[in-house]
Structure formats: C-alpha cells, structure tokens
Amino acid sequence: MANSQAMCTSFKQDLMNGLHAFGSSVIRAATTKDTFNGALYLASGSLGAATTAYSATSELAATGNYTAGGNAFTTATAPTTSGTTAIFTPSASLVFTNLTSSGSFDTVLVYNNTAAGKNAVSVHTFGAQTVTAGTFTLTMPVNDASNALIRIA
Amino acid sequence: MALISTKNGDVEESLLHKVVSVTENDNEIITLTNYYCDGIFVRNDVHVHLKKGLSVFAEASTF
Description:
The complex is a heterodimer. Chain A is mainly beta. Chain A is 5% helix and 32% strand. Chain A has a 4-stranded antiparallel beta sheet, with no helix packed on it. In chain A, a hairpin with a 7-residue loop joins strand 6 and strand 7. The longest helix of chain A is centred in the N-terminal third of the chain and has 8 residues, at 9-16. Chain B has one domain (3-50). Helix content of chain B is 0%, strand content 65%. Chain B is built from no helices and 6 strands. Chain B has strands at residues 3-6, 9-12, 16-24, 28-37, 40-50, 54-56. Strand 9 of chain A pairs parallel with strand 6 of chain B, so a sheet runs across the interface.
C-alpha cells in the first residue's frame, strides 16, 4: 500500500453539505438542510455559468398559476457518493400544475431558497416549451455517478 | 367520466382528442400532449425528462 494524491471523496460530499468554508461564510441558523427551488426562465433569457443568484429577470411572469421564484424541489435523498463522485439529485419531479406559461421557456434555475442571497446552484436547459392550461413536469435524471443532477467528480 | 381542466374550463375527457408526440436528444426526452375539443386546441401537458445533470471536476494540485 502506498500513499496516493487525491481529492478526498468525503470532501466532495462535505462541500454539498456545507461543512467547509475556505473564505468568509454565513452564519447558519440551523443544521437542517436548505430548501432549493426550481424557477423557469423564458427562452429569451441569458442565464448560464455567470448567474450568481435567483432573479426575476427573464423568469416566467407570475401569471397562469406560476409563482415567482418557482417551486420547491423535494430533497428527501441527501447527497451521497458513488465511487469517487459526490452526487445529489432531487427525489421527485418538479411539477407545475394548471400552468399557462407567459411565453416560451427553456431553462430551470436551481437555487438556494433558504440562503438570504438566493444563491444559484445550476442552470439546466431543454427544448423550448409553452404550456396552456396544463401540467409541466420536469423529471430528474438517475441519481448515479454518470447522470445525477449535481455531481462533483 | 374524468374531467380535464382546459383553457375553456373543465371538459369531459371523452370529448377531448389527445395528440402525443415524443422527441429525444442527448439531453432530454420531451413528451408533449396536446388536447383538442371540436378541433380547437384547449390544453397541453409537457413532460421533460432530463437525462443528465451537471458535473464539477475537483482535482488536487501537485506541489
């Protein structure tokens, strides 16, 4: 057995659970998990890697049963590891019922709705859609090292 | 008989004509269901199944 240089797999999982702060952090009010939301954005938007927080700019209008800020993800399954990859995927689909979208949308922003700054997590795009008086369902990928919604490899 | 909510109010399911289309690419599977009543579009459902999320690669530096 020899020593081997590596990023510790447990560290990757710990990052997802907020256990490290190499820079100034925030005072957390509790040890409980945060709430994460999925907000829908118009295809005309410009979200991407530079997105730092939730914003109503380019979001679907709060009409037709869409609520500004989107809906909360179900997060019954905590971050875990698969091999040397830390993974997290919401445990249920994100569902918007009786929705009439204010325009064509192609993006969901995952963000921390507990954090005061509504910090962004990830931006996921798909083929542009419009919904009229119907249900929009966003089903999550398989929660494994190759497909999980959020992976630190 | 089940009632389906449409932009014209609740309509008996038997009165609706349903057209389902599925498209797939490397990123997602999209199932689009359009509902028509007397030939007029009254509702659609969209189901997007994301196939793959996003990855961050963490690497320990050498000295």
